[in-house]
């Protein structure tokens, strides 16, 4: 069975041609799906303005990925905005999905370094300041940073090199496919949560209740297997 791969692409320019090319090149190796968000869409503008509304962007991302297990997220650094760039998008992504693997691309890679360094000029940056900038990028879960015209080939390379999904990945994927379903039984502390909310809790490692629930699920599954094999 082909592995399932879902990616999220965020750009200020339509990426349909790239997505079509990805589909053609990956159709033999995996079940590929791309979710695309164009930041210049009118629906993402601030009311009565030409500026990108970050809150609307976050809600759009949240809505589109709520029932999906995202393997990779890609974002352009340059989004044709005066005060919003790819780093802001990455911060939204890591807030929504803590362990999401991210690729950033740009036609001007020096701009990213300058953005991370802040007010410090690259030529004047100390070793400590550069190390701190690298740490920031690591915290953002940016797996790779490539030129704009190279991101398609880099994504294909990473997908083909990536291991088969783990049981953990498959579990999260199944929960997200039923993200709106309310949890009503089996484990009282999580009663009333949606399966999507539980998936978020597992991914963010934000609540020990999900660890207890997962352990109980394993115990019940083993008990069932033992029973039907008696």
UniProtKB/TrEMBL annotation:
Name used for this protein in its record: Uncharacterized protein
Source organism: Phocaeicola vulgatus (Bacteroides vulgatus)
């Amino acid at each position: 069975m082909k592995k399932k791969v879902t990616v999220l692409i965020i750009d200020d320019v339509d990426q349909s041609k790239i997505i079509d090319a990805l589909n053609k090149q990956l159709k033999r190796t995996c079940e590929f799906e791309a979710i695309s968000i164009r930041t210049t869409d009118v629906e993402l503008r601030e009311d009565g303005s030409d500026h990108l509304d970050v809150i609307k962007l976050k809600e759009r991302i949240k809505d589109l990925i709520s029932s999906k297990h995202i393997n990779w997220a890609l974002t352009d650094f340059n989004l044709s905005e005066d005060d919003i760039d790819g780093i802001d998008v990455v911060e939204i992504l890591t807030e929504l999905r803590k362990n999401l693997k991210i690729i950033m691309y740009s036609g001007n890679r020096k701009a990213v370094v300058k953005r991370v360094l802040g007010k410090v000029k690259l030529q004047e940056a100390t070793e400590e300041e550069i190390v701190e900038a690298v740490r920031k990028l690591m915290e953002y879960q940016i797996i790779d940073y490539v030129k704009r015209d190279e991101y398609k080939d880099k994504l294909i390379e990473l997908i083909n090199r990536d291991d088969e999904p783990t049981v953990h990945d498959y579990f999260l994927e199944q929960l997200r496919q039923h993200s709106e379903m309310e949890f009503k039984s089996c484990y009282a502390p999580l009663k009333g949560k949606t399966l999507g909310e539980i998936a978020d809790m597992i991914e963010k490692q934000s609540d020990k209740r999900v660890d207890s629930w997962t352990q109980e699920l394993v115990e019940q599954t083993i008990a069932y297997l033992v029973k039907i094999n008696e």
